[in-house]
Amino acid sequence: MHLRTCSLIMFNDLRSHPHMAYSASFLVRKLVLLYPEWSIFVVDKLDYCASLRAFDDIQHCKNFEFIKGDITSQDFMLFLLKTKHIDTIVHLAAQTHVDNSFGNSLEFTQNNVVGTHVLLEAARVHKLHRFIHISTDEVYGDIPLTSPNANEETILSPNNPYSATKAAAECLVRAYHRSFGIPAIITRSNNVYGPGQYPEKVIPKFILLLLQDRPCPIHGDGSNARRYLYVADVAHALDLIIQRGEIGEIYNIGTEFELSNLALTEHLVGVIHPGSKSVHDHVEFVEDRAFNDRRYAIDSTKLLRLGWAPTVKFAEGIQKTIEWYREHGDKWWSHADIESALRAHPLKPPAAH
């Protein structure tokens, strides 16, 4: 597949997504630098966790443009698609943090469901070559150790308001593909980590706390497990899907590497405090998150057949991530925002006026 002139990358929080929206800035930089013949437009409403510093090294590039805007505005999106001659949408926009979704679920519906519907309507009117919708492995729900990994045909069973809105958005994408011929592809990914991620997520949060000699708050008994992908590997997967993915298909983007929250903390302690005798010297056990799924596990065979495989080992990716936070962690966002994010159960900071 050869893109003509334009690729539109859309997302609402540049830094926060544990799955895919966080990967947007890496994907944008990759596409801008590798494909100067493409025009890359980034649309973002600059929510509380956003940082435009991610694009400092590409601001000079002629094929890159940042546009502040909200994807839930139908007139704005139609105007943008028409005037910028967009032929491809990569839809990474999402309100994402699960804890926040319990206290402000309607905002998640507005951003994740209504926002997706607005984009689909704009795409239906405008006509596109490709609409890539980024979802999450959380739509599959809890995957017991005794069950096989979820493949793309596994029934969706979301267990929290965030994942329910992502599943609902997927249903709209599939319906528009069937009803109106929108050239859609859906992806579902494991947790993403790497430099620059907003520290309400477990890996950057724990790194910053350990660098400050503060305890890491572990939900429940720490046995809940997740699979982690380094952000560059996810950006590579999306690049491949943009160019070679088959219209109408769903692609899991995952790894077999899995850690419990306690094992993750032990690994981070070993790197940041190598002389420590016990991980328990650096943790505090707190009340578990509401309806906390035990684990997510997905089968990525279809994407592997397309030619993708993760290349960054967890130890290597974590080392790069820790080094980034050593250098930038206290400077990237305001102190107040960082403190709010570092809580055991973080709350969304109040909107700036």
Automatic annotation (TrEMBL):
Cofactor: NAD(+)
Gene3D superfamilies named in the record: NAD(P)-binding Rossmann-like Domain, UDP-galactose 4-epimerase, domain 1
Keyword NAD on entry: yes
SUPFAM superfamilies registered for this protein in UniProt: NAD(P)-binding Rossmann-fold domains (SSF51735)
Segments passing through the bilayer: none
Pfam family of the protein (one): GDP_Man_Dehyd
Listed InterPro entries: dTDP_Gluc_deHydtase, NAD(P)-bd_dom, NAD(P)-bd_dom_sf
Keywords, alphabetical: Lyase, NAD
Domain NAD(P)-binding: 25-321
Annotated GO biological process: nucleotide-sugar metabolic process
GO molecular function, one term: dTDP-glucose 4,6-dehydratase activity
Protein name according to UniProt: dTDP-glucose 4,6-dehydratase
Organism: Allomyces macrogynus (strain ATCC 38327)
